[in-house]
Design brief:
The complex is a heterodimer of chains A (542) and B (310). Chain A has 542 residues and is an all-alpha fold. Chain A contains 17 helices and two strands. A five-stranded mixed β-sheet of chain B has the order 3-2-1-5-8, with no helix packed on it. In chain B, strands 4-10-9-6-7 form a five-stranded mixed β-sheet, covered by helices on one side. A three-stranded antiparallel β-sheet of chain B has the order 12-11-13, with no helix packed on it. In chain B, helix 1 runs antiparallel to helix 2. The chains are: A mainly alpha (542), B alpha+beta (310). Bound molecules: copper (II) ion (CU) (2 copies). The site of one copper (II) ion has 7 residues of chain B, from loops.
């Protein structure tokens, strides 16, 4: 294949990549290029992620001893609210689709851009506006919100803090998410390269496809729910507060009808990344391609019907609790299928244990812990005990950070040379990985124990019998911070001084490896034609 | 861990053991296989990969076996949960009232307590009432929790099987002092319980002669001291000390005005706290007590606030 040969050579003189195509601030903030928009998202998302991390570190520091350590209860309550809002709405929901999806979805399907480039830019602006609105609560109004990221009514209707701004921020961010989803769906239907039928499409695009439908269909529900909170606060319309005729449990239903599917908006794209990376480092076709595709679709679909498992103690009817519990157990199956397929892919491979593969393995391990503890909270009687305790906090951090977070950082190491045209120091990258992985477990594993012992979440203070594990957990948070610093420093250094990367650093056979690093403005010199399946590594042997 | 402090502990813990047990086996198994593959099929040892597209039989196996396993898990979860919703007919009923940020337990004879006192080996049903926002009553040692939702009549029940004093937490976030909405459940022998119950009834019939003490007991029983101190300390709300007869700047609607703290003002502040919000304090925090406090108790409260001086 001619283009492939070209890509493996060091970029020829006179080649203009998408960075060099045009210059100046305007060429970025008014760009229609999906790759530049992806990078705009990248800087925003990473910025917010670091803010969320700092808030988390402060919270953990407060928890190192019982009683007041460095802040008052009101401050602590605002911190965990902002930490949640930032991490959920500004980091984990947009992270994988808006950065890697924007950058690589068109390339992976052999297109020169997304279907609606201007809409794409608009989504980014909505993201920035939403982010600024969320942060503005720090200085505007009567103090940052103190409701938790769930904005549970009627507390969110009664508290004097700046809930309206925070809720409107989430509303605007929702639109950003809907538009990205819509854009991706149309892109995949309309713009696949000649020869790429659906069953030849790589698995990351497939995961984005399933996710995009959830984004488009579920997000409007949270939008209207949040508007109802605003209407209740401003106009006194009684939706959720029983003292004016509302129903608090209605709020929880509406909130989780979106927010449970949103969990899959957060994890499905990450699973797609894992499916994308493993075959490259195993040099082997993915095991059970179709099973992985169908399991993504199954997760996205069944995921709509399990929201009630967040409300087992809310006073919902007994039958409803039973039905939600069964469905919750069933939605675990397709996730299990994926794990088995990933591990089976390694069987009889020719494995090159590079940094991205280490992250994939960590993902599988941590995601399993997150998933299994999800079964614990899916079981009725066990959930009654650990609901709203640190057990749940540990569970979702294993899924969100151990899962999506690790997949995100892994994919960054996988595609970094492609995106920026430079290679990082692999040894330092592995050390960073090791520190992060260790710190992660010291930080979050103790929370399972605390939860089983009965420590409720969102507690500013705690009884002395819980101090040991709180202390351990806080120390883990420092190790996580060190790990992140190593990883970021390594990547920043590579940006300035890294070795120039060839077009195909890992020997992959999906389309992004057929173009240069970084790619040209329209991605390919010649529009590609697809002749083999995305992971058909038998072509290497021919 | 397994203390058997209540009738539910055994079944709930069993669900934990079953689910965590099965999970541990799978977790260790899958992880070990993964690490084995990475070592065994390292590219140095195995320079060319064998291409395998998949295997339908395997896909079927690892769909069906996990399905059976999770259904087993569901079963154990359900078995432990089922009795929690079926209250025995002879259960003692206690009204558990949650408010920012304290609990009150009201017994059939009108007795009010800030601790939950229950007899050993007797079924107790808690009728859960919230006066303001969502709370959740959680007794970790008993493995029970249920949300306390305003406008809804949730319930929970248990039978304590071991004497002792157990923590009660509020598990649903409810604002600034959520972490302090904690109290105890004291499990005492039946005879002791009966006499405590009878004495309490008597005390109600012949309330304390000292009106100041009676007043203090009333604000304590109604949870006012979670937000108001009696010694001048500023909590979430203004202290009661020395306010009677003084001038106050309040916000009424959008306007600021100055009022004198008299009986009418105090009573209205308790019944409809959002009418006049004391300046520099947060609106919407104090629940309205209209219809919750009898006129008699109201008089006691007013008397007590007066007694704290001017
Ligand atoms: Cu959920
Ligand atoms: Cu609470």
């Amino acid at each position: 294949m001619e283009s492939e040969k070209m890509a493996t050579e060091i970029t020829p003189k006179g080649y203009v990549n998408f960075f060099e195509e045009s210059h100046g601030l305007k060429s970025w903030i008014f760009t229609h290029d999906h790759k530049r928009i992806a990078l705009l998202y990248f800087y925003g998302v990473v910025g917010f992620f670091l803010m969320g991390v700092v808030l988390g570190l402060l919270m953990k520091f407060e928890m190192i001893t019982p009683g007041e350590t460095i802040m008052k209860p009101q401050t602590y309550n605002s911190l965990f609210t902002l930490h949640g809002v930032i991490m959920v709405f500004l980091f984990i929901i947009p992270a994988v689709p808006a950065i890697f999806g924007n950058f690589f979805l068109p390339i992976l399907i052999g297109a020169d851009d997304v279907a609606f480039p201007k809409l794409n830019l608009l989504s980014w602006y909505l993201y920035v506006i939403g982010g600024i609105m969320a942060l503005s609560t720090l200085i505007l109004g009567d103090g940052p919100p103190d409701t938790g990221w769930t904005f549970y009514a009627p507390y969110s209707v009664k508290t004097g803090t700046n809930v309206i701004m925070a809720v409107m921020a989430a509303f605007v961010l929702g639109f950003s998410s809907i538009l990205t989803g819509l854009n991706f769906i149309v892109t995949m239907h309309r713009m696949r390269a000649p020869g790429m039928d659906w069953m030849k499409m790589p698995l990351f695009p497939w995961a984005l496809y399933a996710t995009s439908w959830v984004q488009v269909l579920a997000t409007p529900i949270i939008g209207i729910t949040l508007l109802m909170v605003v209407a209740e606060r401003v106009l006194g319309v009684g939706f959720f507060d029983p003292s004016i005729g509302g129903d608090p449990v209605l709020y929880q239903h509406l909130f989780w009808i979106y927010s449970h599917p949103a969990v899959y908006i957060m994890i499905l794209p990450a699973m797609g990344l894992i499916s994308e990376m493993i075959p490259v480092f195993v040099k082997k076709s993915i095991f059970g391609y179709k099973a992985i595709v169908y399991s993504s679709l199954a997760i996205a679909f069944v995921g709509y019907f399990v929201w009630g498992h967040h409300m087992f103690t809310s006073g919902m009817s007994g039958q409803a609790r039973v039905v939600f519990s069964i469905l919750t157990f069933l939605v675990a199956i397709p996730s299990g299928v994926k794990v088995f397929n990933w591990v089976a892919t390694m069987f009889k491979g020719s494995i090159d244990l590079q940094t991205p593969l280490l992250y994939c393995m960590a993902f599988i391990f941590l995601f399993m812990i997150g998933g299994f503890t999800g079964l614990v909270v899916g079981a009725l009687s066990a959930d009654v005990h650990v609901h709203d305790t640190y057990f749940v906090v540990a569970h979702f951090h294993y899924v969100m950070f151990g899962g999506t977070g690790f997949a995100f950082i892994g994919a960054l190491h996988y595609w970094y040379p492609k995106m920026f045209g430079r290679m990082y120091n692999k040894k330092v990258a592995n050390i960073g990985f090791g520190v992060l992985f260790t710190g992660f477990n010291i930080l979050y594993f103790p929370m399972f124990i605390l939860g089983i012992q009965g420590m409720p979440r969102r507690y500013y203070d705690y009884l002395p019998e819980y101090s040991t594990w709180h202390k351990v957990s806080t120390m883990g948070s420092w190790v996580v911070a060190i790990g992140l610093i190593i990883i970021i420093a390594n990547l920043v250094k590579a940006y300035r001084k890294g070795e120039p990367a060839t077009g195909n650093v890992w020997g992959g056979i999906t389309l992004e490896w057929e173009t240069k690093s970084p790619p040209p403005l329209l991605n390919f010199d010649k529009p590609p034609t697809v002749t083999h399946g995305p992971y058909d590594y038998s072509i290497l042997n021919k | 861990m397994n203390t058997n402090a209540s009738n539910f502990v055994e079944q709930v813990d069993l669900a934990f053991y079953v689910i965590i047990g099965i999970s541990l086996i799978l977790l260790i198994g899958v992880t070990a296989v993964m690490i084995y593959f990475v070592v065994r099929y390292n590219k140095k040892k195995n320079p060319t990969a064998t291409q395998i597209e998949g295997n339908n039989k395997l896909e079927l196996i690892w769909t069906i076996i996990p399905t059976i396993l999770v259904l087993i898990m569901f079963y154990y979860g359900w078995v432990g949960y089922e009795p929690m919703r079926n209250v025995p007919d002879d259960a003692i009923e206690v009204k558990a009232i949650g408010r920012m940020w304290s609990w009150t337990f009201e017994y059939d004879n009108g007795l009010k307590s800030d601790k939950l006192i229950v007899p050993l080996n007797k079924a107790v049903k808690l009728n859960l009432v919230s006066m303001d926002v969502n709370h959740a009553l959680y007794i970790p040692a008993f493995r029970i929790k249920e949300d306390v939702v305003p406008g809804r009549n949730n319930f929970m029940w248990f039978e304590a099987q071991k004497l002792g004093s157990y923590d009660i937490f509020c598990a649903e976030y409810c604002g600034q002092r959520h972490a302090y909405m904690i109290t105890k459940c004291d499990v005492i022998p039946v005879e002791e319980y009966n006499s405590w119950y009878a004495e309490g009834a008597q005390a109600l019939a012949n309330p304390s002669d000292d009106p100041v003490e009676a007043g203090y007991n009333t604000i304590k029983a109604n949870g006012c001291i979670a937000c108001h101190s009696t010694d001048g300390t500023k909590l979430v709300g203004p202290s009661f000390k020395g306010i009677f007869g003084t001038q106050r700047v309040v916000v009424t609607g959008d306007e600021e005005r100055t009022v004198t703290v008299d009986e009418a003002y105090i009573i209205n502040s308790i019944k409809h706290p959002n009418d006049d919000v004391v300046k520099d304090y947060m609106k919407g925090l104090m629940p309205g007590y209209d219809g919750q406090i009898s006129d008699e108790d109201m008089d006691k409260i007013v008397f007590y606030i007066k007694s704290l001086g001017e």
